[in-house]
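Lab notebook page, bench 4
Experiment: in silico fold of construct C2
Operator: M.H.
Input chain length: 104 residues
Purpose: comparison with the prior construct
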Amino acid sequence: MKEEIGERIKNIREKMNMTKETFAKKIGISGQYLGLVEHGKNYLSIEKLKVLCDFTSLSADYILFGKNPNIVKDTKNLLTEFNENEIITGCETLKQLALFIKKI
């Protein structure tokens, strides 16, 4: 579990195009400690997790468990970029993929 949390934190930092040092300063830890967290060797304290959530506007559920509470809203927003025929085709493709995976 430590490794998964560390990987999510590393991905968040990289998506924000921040160095370890800069990101670490924003949440109030050292770059060296952040490296330990990203490699799954240590955890953030509850206080630092809250700072990270506030700083990144991400939920603790996402950081700790990978659960995105905005998945429905994000999906609806994404789907507005497609026309009805593209959505129908995509849904059919997903159904076929699900059936294929179920057979494996």
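Observations: The CA atoms of residues 20 and 35 lie 7 Å apart. Helices lie at 2-15, 20-27, 31-38, 46-56, 60-65, 71-79, 84-103.
Next step: discuss at group meeting.
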